């Protein structure tokens, strides 16, 4: 991977992912490898052991952590139940390394969401109540797995928990998931917005109503200002 790096691209990507001091990605380091290239590598190295993937996930380089996660997603999809349990536990025990929005978004639904689908989903609530930004984002993005299957209960429950979250990246994630609910059942999303729309952060609300007709969007935004 180091041989595939591009220093000029790395500098630009570092700015995009907010790696300056005080920003959400502070201290992260990039090699400058595009996501399509990392995805191709994940196919070539999809049989790495969990020990090797655990080491890769601890890498100081963002793209190497991304590669580890993409391989774990591939492995989880074709694994037997015992192996899936191991992948899930590796993931939730290493969340400190899943520390930017792209790392969460490429993996949470496919591992956490998928693993909890047929059993108790209480771990999602623990993650949603975490002080760690990325664990809260994992909680809401994991529910995308259920949304795609017409199950909105956990999305709405976690959206309520995160409604007053202080971070913009949670506002965007919650709004995005609510929008995905609305794409499948507009009435369910609107029922939630009738109860919570006036108190939702503006970014969260804007993301949630992005696909509504302009006149309906204006009504929700106006009501929020009252």
Tell me the layout of helices and strands.
Layout lengths: L6 H10 L18 H10 L5 H8 L4 H17 L2 H13 L7 H5 L2 H9 L5 H7 L4 H10 L1 H4 L5 H10 L5 H17 L1 H11 L5 H7 L5 H12 L1
Helix pairs in contact: 2-4, 3-4, 4-5, 7-9, 8-9, 9-12, 11-12, 12-13, 12-14
Describe this structure in words.
- The protein is mainly α and 226 residues long.
- The chain has helices at 7-16, 35-44, 50-57, 62-78, 81-93, 101-105, 108-116, 122-128, 133-142, 144-147, 153-162, 168-184, 186-196, 202-208, 214-225.
- It is globular and about 55 Å long.
Rounded to an integer in angstroms, the radius of gyration calculated over CA atoms is: 18 Å
Number of E strands = 0
Structural class designation: mainly alpha
Q: What would the average pLDDT be, to the nearest integer? A: 96
Number of helices: 15
Instruction: Indicate the overall shape.
Output: globular
Short description:
The chain is mainly alpha-helical and 226 residues long. The chain contains 15 helices and no strands.
Main traits of this protein?
mainly alpha, 226 residues
